[in-house]
Amino acid sequence: MNLGESGQIYFKNGYILTMNAVNQVYACGSLLVEGDKILAVGEVDERYIRGDAEVIDLHGKYLLPGFVNTHVHTSQQISRGVGDDVDFITWLHKRMWPFESSMTEEDSYVSTLMCCLEQIRAGVTSFAEPGGQFVSGMARAVTEAGLRAKLAKSVMDCGEGLPEIWQRTTEEELEQQIDDLNKYHNTADGRVQVWFGLRTIFNNTDELIVKTKELADKYGVGVHMHVAEAKSEIEYTQAVYGEPTVTHLHKLGVLDKNLLAVHTVWLTNEEIDLFKKYDVKVSHNPASAMRVLGFAKIPQMLKKKVCVSIGTDGASSSNRMDMVDEMWLTSLIHKGWRLDSTVVPSEDILCMATKNGARALLDEEVYGSLEPGKKADLIVIDPHGPSMMPVNDRIAALVTAMHSSNIESTMCNGKWLMKERKILTLDEEAILKEAQERSEAIYKRAGIVLPDRFPVIY
């Protein structure tokens, strides 16, 4: 049965979290999928169920919308381990930039395949890529994996220490993005889309930032940018512009509903108000922030109804591209630094990982909740096992106790990407093997040598 076309799947006896406008839950509900869309949720009229439908008795397992990872560097997936326990300058100039600038398009393709494997296993059905160098390779991989993605090029037209291969003019960077958009936007049945990227204010001129916003509006897409990420960034913008990053972006006129601002660790209270006023979307990446960046004012943002979503960042920053881990970290770190165990509760975190993510990617009408007419992007979670049981508070357990190994099946656009923990769209073992080989070759080309941490006998 080709479930990507017109087949039906009928789920019954499930604990269904719809994540709709009121976060309706069905303790023993049903859901009907036909083709790539959801037909009915809750109590399904059996007259609509065809005789050839695939029937899945969930036996009380969870059914949720697929998670939305709003910030993941797919091109960094095979660089895992490159940035552990080193200072920021070493990480950037001696590790990350040499690695990324030594990658080929085929490397980017394989790295993205690896990233897609981890996303599928962690229940992600849609993600946003903030920018590698080869949108072409990324688009090919996402198409094959069956996921949804907003892809962008890593765009830089200034900055010290950039590898020669990345030194481009403003116009060259804009033209490349327009070319990528014309080739790959809305391909793979609309699953693959192209956004505009801005790496960081360190590496983006005002002219590039303004023109990028104009083009994003023209093409009806978003802008993906690292914003107020590090203390050193704010010190830089204060020295160069006499004001912090977000205040400067506001003066440039780029704060808007189609700006996805990543990290946002060093925002002033007034800048949070600007985010609310202009409906700027936030991607909170707790793992990478804990490494070197600091603690974003997420409790305050949520209180002021800023749209906050969750991202994993890249494997060079946190090594785990696992949204389940990120939800768990989100539930802990703000309680810790605020010394308040009531902030950022589990129900808010589930919203951040699902419908807020869809809204951040400008797709809230397409997916992010289980509602009739929306795309069939969903996951099945089996709580059975010692790590998650006994389950008493069912909602909190999804955030505070669940592991990605509890995610049994992942569906995107009505097609199974993983079923009963088996990846169906990709050859997992072949990808793992090639990714390891390519990673070792890139390390060698880039001249990166990771020192032995303990005495090793070869």
From TrEMBL:
<dbReference type="InterPro" id="IPR050287">
    <property type="entry name" value="MTA/SAH_deaminase"/>
</dbReference>
<dbReference type="InterPro" id="IPR032466">
    <property type="entry name" value="Metal_Hydrolase"/>
</dbReference>
<dbReference type="GO" id="GO:0016810">
    <property type="term" value="F:hydrolase activity, acting on carbon-nitrogen (but not peptide) bonds"/>
</dbReference>
<feature type="domain" description="Amidohydrolase-related">
    <location>
        <begin position="62"/>
        <end position="417"/>
    </location>
</feature>
<protein>
    <submittedName>
        <fullName>Amidohydrolase</fullName>
    </submittedName>
</protein>
<dbReference type="Pfam" id="PF01979">
    <property type="entry name" value="Amidohydro_1"/>
</dbReference>
<dbReference type="InterPro" id="IPR006680">
    <property type="entry name" value="Amidohydro-rel"/>
</dbReference>
<dbReference type="InterPro" id="IPR011059">
    <property type="entry name" value="Metal-dep_hydrolase_composite"/>
</dbReference>
<keyword id="KW-0378">Hydrolase</keyword>
